[in-house]
Structure prediction request, 88 residues.
Amino acid sequence: MSQQETALGPEWCIEGQYTEGVLDSYDIAPKELASASGVHESTLSRFFNDRKPIKDKTLLKIGIALGRLAEQRDAKRKNQQAQSAAGR
Prediction:
């Protein structure tokens, strides 16, 4: 593993080590990530299955979209928790 891959951590390795398990932990569907990132779903699928190296630019698109979707998901959960707490 290169220094750049090590710095990114095992989940974000440039060689395609980002797995569906990590995606599942974020609770974001692959189709939603493909739509938000502008990366074709088949590219995501090949990447997740470790069949295709991925360019840094594409990885950046995926990372930015994943971050935004995770923020939206967290805000939605926070609002739902606040509403359920207010309803008690």
In short: The chain has one domain: 3-86. The radius of gyration is 15 Å. Helices lie at 3-8, 20-26, 30-37, 41-48, 56-86.
